[in-house]
């Protein structure tokens, strides 16, 4: 018997459809959400598992489809087209920083830190093709990412908590602007990229994230990025995040270290003895 085309049978599709409906009526859904989940103290409740549906991990700027880095993979290894998530389409690089981005992109398969299982950093962790979970309490919020089991702790209403050192996922301080969760991310190491296209930053990067419900299962994610060493002015990205409604949904393991070890040391693999 054919399966019923009921959205309830396709939970992720249902979430996407709900998001498209919200985007279509952006003014009312975004400015005055009334059906969003809330915590006991009345704040928006962001607990759940979320995922972006876009091609930003390939390139956050608009891009056409292109050949992939491994010709033998054919169509399945090709780079998909994407509209990008950068408002205004183009990152306002300094001339030197744009030149560095182009050098990065020319050999991204060898140079993208993600290939070596480094932590993705912020904001890239939020639009990887992997889900992540938000665990929210009154004074801290934990973001747990499926990729590499990366995580970050966000400190709520603790503005005097200083970063002891630079880190891969940054120093995260949060506050609420009405029903919007605002996270100020600083002190990230300069070794992360935003995508496979080599878009980059320095250790002066400041990311101001904004999480706003557009409906009970869709979050409007916005981030302002500032880095005077790399960009001529602040710039923004935005995209929706969808709640994963799959039955028994949970984060699974993607321990990428073992794959990285194969990449780095696979040529040293012991060969089977076939002489006996």
A few lines on this structure:
This protein has five helices and nine strands. With 276 residues, it is an alpha+beta fold. The protein has one domain.
Describe the structure.
The structure is a single chain. The chain contains five helices and nine strands. By secondary structure, the protein is α+β, with helices and mostly antiparallel strands. The chain has one domain. The protein has a nine-stranded mixed barrel. A hairpin with a 2-residue loop joins strand 5 (171-177) and strand 6. The protein is globular, with a radius of gyration of 20 Å.
Task: Please render the helix and strand layout as text.
Elements: H1 11-24, H2 26-31, E1 48-52, H3 95-106, H4 108-111, E2 132-136, E3 140-145, E4 151-156, E5 171-177, E6 180-186, E7 206-215, E8 218-226, E9 235-243, H5 257-265
Parallel strand pairs: 4-5
Antiparallel strand pairs: 1-2, 1-9, 2-3, 3-4, 5-6, 6-7, 7-8, 8-9
What labels would you give this structure?
276 residues, alpha+beta, globular
So what's the overall shape? globular
Strand fraction band?
15-25%
Q: Which strand order spans the largest sheet, edge to edge or round the barrel?
A: 1-2-3-4-5-6-7-8-9
Helix and strand succession?
Answer: HHEHHEEEEEEEEH
| Count of alpha/pi helices | 5
Structural class given helices, strands, pairing? alpha+beta
Number of spatially distinct domains: 1
- What share of the residues lie within helices? 10-25%
Specify the biggest β-sheet. 9 strands, mixed, barrel
